[in-house]
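Collaborator request, handled under Task 6.
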Amino acid sequence: MTYEFILVEPQFEKHIALIRLNRPKELNALNLQLMQDLKHALYQLDNDDEVRCIIITGNEKSFAAGADIKQMENANAIDMLNRDQFETWDQIRKTRKPVIAAVSGFCLGGGNELAMTCDMIVASETAKFGQPEIKIGIMPGAGGTQRLAKAVGKALAMEMVLTGKFISADDALKAGLINKVVPVEVYLDEAVKLAKEIAQQSPIAIRLAKESVLKAFDSGLQEGLYFERKNFYMCFASEDQKEGMNAFVEKRKPEFKGK
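Structure tokens returned to the collaborator:
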């Protein structure tokens, strides 16, 4: 399937799919059509048994520099309510397979919110993260106040949201927003390396583990513990669990089949 504003490689590497945001002249600003493209691509890849991990990236200059302001500047509150653009974001968040953001350059506004919607972030040393919506008279609306606060804490999130300041990749790493910082020449390679490690594991266990970590992020401790325990037990209904434990006992590499 072809898309207007993204490029998709379902088998970029074995079991690894790549989605590249593709509006380079606009610094990959997230317009409504791009987000629809992204939603549909993620749905297709999520239901492809050959795909075990998904990477979303932009280019060296920009992951995504924000939302497309031209699509919003003349809208009123009722227009935005009826547009319901965040339904797309909710669907993206429901992707069951692990999603890694490979970020270089600008990762601002909706771009930062999209990266935070992913499960992990690998960044180049040139990456800049921020929520600058306050500078155009609005505030983040796709998770920028909620996920950012949970990721980096109240104080830094408040500073970033209320001033619109950017933080460097190194500061983002120190704050816990991202997984690693690497030279710009290898940021995508490092994301692929991480994806390969994940793709070697049992797809069923990975899916259940991802759900459980997100539950901790989205809920209180007791509710999260209950959810984790349920998914832990579910692992023992899979052939992968038997293969993994047998391989450990037999001192060999497991061959997971996602069953």
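The cover message to the collaborator said: "The first strand starts at residue 6 and ends at 13. DSSP finds eleven helices and ten strands in the chain. Please let us know whether this matches your experimental observations."
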